[in-house]
Design goal:
alpha/beta; Aspartate Aminotransferase, domain 2; 3-stranded antiparallel sheet; globular
Length: 387
């Protein structure tokens, strides 16, 4: 028989699914895959239920329902000071991963180079390759996650179509500084390249800092494709509602890709997310403060157990070394910890395309306090037995 697509044939199942399945099989507490164990704000869920009963359940506009597109434009203005035309610059997608795929398929032609920063979300590389693009990898590594300006500059050329960045960054918890984003902006303007900005954790920036989008930088308004996620902002990851903000000349081809990937997204969920984006400042402040407290709670507990806990400026995640486990390989450490301690985490090596660092683990803290405490207790008991 003729071979299937070689890019996807034989590709391993994503590490997030592997660890989540193992957690279910073993009864482990899942601090691996990044999803909360709460159900999201009641007002948003109730709006979705009401919309099913009183609104349309037929195909909405391919671009998204007007209420949500207007709400996304309003949120850009409210949180970032960006003036966005909801009719020509906003697209609703079935999740941020679809948004990333649409952006790559809409902008990248065969032979184009796309700069990617490792560690990276595991869909980036295969999607670039499927579009015929050539990934150009720039590495940052724990514990400091610093960009080498020379290495970044060397990755750009006349063939560079775009750079895809994730800020705040999964799994590093890195929040790109203004200086780093300006460096990226300068290179994009020099080489006439775009930025695909995966900003799904935009409302989870801690320690008093504010989120900065590359779209806010001088000269970048028309070069940036900005991607947001209702799943991350409202703890509704199963809804898979994403949104793209981009200048019309960029959004038009991206929307054509969306047309043939999912075409549209459930209208009741879109209507409910519009309600969520209009929630008052108290919601957003409380959401951020609550997750920061969970970060601190888990980080302190892991440090007490002897882990070297790296700084996390945003996202759902903290990274540690494997040191106190006595297992140098992070994948083996995570598998053993899941099976024997009953706590699942994710190896950071899974976020690198080649030659990864192998002694770091990502823990997810977007869980109830009692779940975090139970996980720490299990780890403590297991480590005492192993000592």
């Amino acid at each position: 028989m003729k071979p299937t697509n070689p890019l996807f044939t034989g590709m391993p199942t994503t590490i997030f699914e592997v660890m989540s399945r193992l957690a279910v099989e073993t009864g482990a507490i899942n601090l691996g895959q990044g999803f909360p164990d709460t159900e999201g704000p009641e007002a948003i869920r109730r709006a979705a239920a009401d919309a099913v009963m009183t609104g349309s359940n037929q195909y909405p506009s391919m671009m998204g329902i007007p209420a949500l597109r207007q709400a996304v434009a309003d949120a850009n203005r409210r949180f970032l000071g960006l003036d966005v035309d909801w009719q020509s610059e906003v697209l609703v997608t079935s999740g941020a991963t679809e948004a990333i795929a649409d952006a790559i398929l809409g902008l990248v032609a065969p032979g184009d180079e796309v700069v990617l920063i490792e560690p990276l979300y595991d869909c980036y590389v295969p999607m670039v390759r499927q579009a015929g693009g050539i990934p150009k990898l720039v590495r940052i590594t724990p514990p400091h996650w610093e960009i080498d300006p020379d290495a970044l500059a060397a990755a750009f050329s006349e063939r560079t179509k775009a750079i895809l960045i994730n800020t705040p960054m999964n799994p590093a918890g890195k929040v790109f500084t203004g200086e780093e984003l300006q460096l990226i902006a300068d290179l994009c303007q020099r080489f006439d390249a775009y930025v695909i900005a995966d900003e799904v954790y935009e409302h989870l920036v801690f320690d008093g800092r504010a989120h900065l989008s590359p779209m806010q930088l001088p000269g970048m308004r028309d070069r940036v494709v900005r991607i947001g996620s209702a799943g991350k902002t409202f703890s509704l990851t199963g809804w898979k509602i994403g949104y793209i903000t981009a200048a019309p000349h960029l959004l038009a081809p991206i929307a054509k890709a969306h047309q043939f990937v999912t075409f549209t997204t459930p209208p009741n969920l879109q209507a409910a997310v519009a309600v969520g984006l209009a929630l008052d400042d108290a919601y957003y402040a409380g959401f951020k403060a609550g997750l920061q407290a969970k970060r601190d709670r888990l980080s302190a507990g892991l440090a007490d157990l002897g882990f070297d806990v790296l700084a996390s400026g945003g996202t759902y995640f903290v990274t540690t070394d494997t040191g106190p486990l006595g297992i140098a390989d992070d994948r083996e450490a995570c598998l053993t910890m899941t099976r024997e301690a009953g706590v699942a985490a994710v190896p950071v090596s899974a976020f690198y395309a080649s030659d990864p660092p192998s002694t770091f683990i990502r823990f997810c803290f977007c869980k109830k306090d009692e779940v975090l405490d139970a996980a720490l207790d299990r780890l403590a008991r297991w480590m005492r037995r192993a000592a």
